[in-house]
Amino acid sequence: MPLARPTGQIPDAAWTSGFREMTEPWKGAVGCLGVAVFFTMTIGIISWQALEQSPEEWVLRGRAGGMLWERRRGALLLRALPAGRTVAVIAVGGVPAAEPPPPRDRCWHDGGQFCYAWEEDAELRLSLEPPPAPATECYGVRWTPLRPDVMLKDCFSMANVSWYGGASIRAQRWPLNGAESRAQPFVSGDFSKNPAGYGPVLERYFLGSTGVTVTVAPDVPLFLSLESNRHFCLETPAGRAAVPLRYLLCVSPDVAAAHRHVGSQLAGQARALPDTALLGSPIWRYYGPAGSAAKIKRGLRSLAKRLKRHRLQEGVLALGERCTAILAAADHVPSERRKRQDSTRAWDPSLIQPLRLSIVLSPYASIASPLFLRSLRDSEAASYWLSLQPRFGGCSVPLLTTWKGRLCARLNVTSEAALSWYLARARRLRQALGAAYVVFEGAEGNAFLERAVPPPAELAGDRYTGALAAALATLGNATVISAGARSSHLPLFVQMSPLRSDWSHAGLKGVIPSVLHYSLLGYNFFIPDAVGGSLASDAPGDPELYVRWLQIVTFLPVMAFSTPPWLCCDAWALNLTRQCIQRHRDFVVPLLKKYSEEWLSLGYPIFRPAWWLSPTDPTAFTIEDEFLIGDEVLVAPITEKGQMWRDIYLPGEGHLWMDTSTARVFDGGTILRNYSASLAEVPVFVKTS
């Protein structure tokens, strides 16, 4: 009988009885040992996960940088190599961000792309794109929603990054980090209609102090929000099937190189200058009697005589839209009646010489105006004015909106017939009134979005502003427009928005940030708001504010006045105004003409921030009360009420700067503490090396 093999099992009875016989201390020791083993295994698993699964994972890598996915925040990181510094953090919204992309993506066969899809939500595609310069590397980012209700949203962190560009705002900041704005369509607007909206000049371009740029594709229906000192967000609205969010990320060695390589080329190579004769011509806005054409003519002659008496007889007299309409009313009088009128009643531009005249038009027509009523009578309303198309047949209806408190129709810039008629009318009025310049107000905004109506594809976003600007450029380079969007290359002056007559960022403090913003986006030839501000404040007239404002605009392209100095201040301010106008002509205009040639060839801004010469100095990134003209003149005015001194940052380590008032020389890359600047002075430095 074969022997049975031992099974190696412990008899139940023996085990049970042995365990029961264990004392209480031994039972506790065994329990502690089990707990220790459990914790050791848990720590080992966690350590293995931490070592094997890094919180950051490369998803696309180039030569100068790459994109990583950070699991903890659900964010894309743009990192520069070889230093490994993070230049942008992009928090992802609209998808389950906690879900990490896989180690092996759908585009694994293509080393220049990374693809991943969040199931039923959105698809992400990253790609290496051709660089604009050898030292710059670019990445395409494309989010595609997989359901109509998915809202795509990418938020760019402001932590350790100063951001510039994008949209102008009511109280302009430089950088944008201090601005606040709810999510709204990225469309130019009129602050008088919507103070919380975006202003008249914007571009889909953002520049970071780390050397990163963000350029959004022009056909993306874009929303932008700004959360002060936290982030700005790019969004696409939900409810539109498969509308992707697309933008280009580029990284360069520093912020100045980034703008030279990317931002300066936004408008392409074909740039043209406006009429540089306006640069040396102060603008005097007419606010005299406007009840009739005869009163306007007398008022213009009176203002011209006053200017001549005060030795300010050169420049431009600027009429507003209402006065222009009154003077031009005779243009609609039948020719036989016009012949019977006394010829001496016609406007004669020689009455104000050597001053020249500018007039104002807009693409709006009041529904009670003869112009609009005539278009209805002639059945031309559908082609001349923006219209709503009926859903189920029938006639189109003009889209009505408000302009300066009146219910109006707006010119249809998609109609060749409407544009030809409008431009011919502008040429006729300019000739009839002998105007040297024509200002076109009301170019900003999207009338369809204002009425909560989806715009046609050809007028989506800011395409109205761009189309109108392109048409107005055919009138010649003596044209001024009130808005800019993808039109910085055109030979047009841009009229800045009115500012408040106070010391806030909506007033004097906002002048230099606006100058830097406009110039960064390519709009170097702008007309700033009038000295002292155009919008009344709660405080009465302030001579100190007027003088400090005057000192800033002396160094800008055009000096504009709404309140003459003899009405605002005493004889001292009047004399200072003469001096500033002369300094503008003799010192500033030659500089502007010199650097306008550089803008034509290279696209570099004429008015530059301090970081242009100190692109790696964090101190320079947040300076909003100084600006450079080209590379050789630094202007550091006073923007605080009652202040007679200020700190001045001199950029460009290794350079020397000379104070034009005292001839003292200082090193670049330093800060001058408590530098004197009396009411009669504005600190100006010229680079000497």
TrEMBL record:
Transmembrane segments: 29-51
Keyword 4Fe-4S: no
Designated name of the protein: Glycosyl hydrolase family 31 C-terminal domain-containing protein
UniProt KW Transmembrane helix keyword: yes
A Pfam family this chain is assigned to: Glyco_hydro_31_3rd
InterPro entries: Alpha-glycosidase_related, GH, Glyco_hydro_31_C, Glyco_hydro_b
Domain Glycosyl hydrolase family 31 C-terminal: 603-687
Taxon lineage: Eukaryota, Metazoa, Chordata, Craniata, Vertebrata
